[in-house]
């Protein structure tokens, strides 16, 4: 597996609520509101009441927030 594919597969794991909150610094309610407005990655239903997010999508959202906050939004 080449380096790029290996990197992508590692970042596409599913993260749960606690890790998502730690990575984003955004509480569950605010993320839910942002998700409804299409401004945060959609959650994945894992079965029952369990949900998660793709790490790659969450990290891309975090990076986009960093660009906006530093005034470098594209």
TrEMBL record:
Supply the Pfam families for this chain: Phage_AlpA
Q: Which InterPro entries match?
A: AlpA, Prophage_regulatory_activator
What this protein is called in its record is AlpA family phage regulatory protein
Biological source species = Escherichia coli
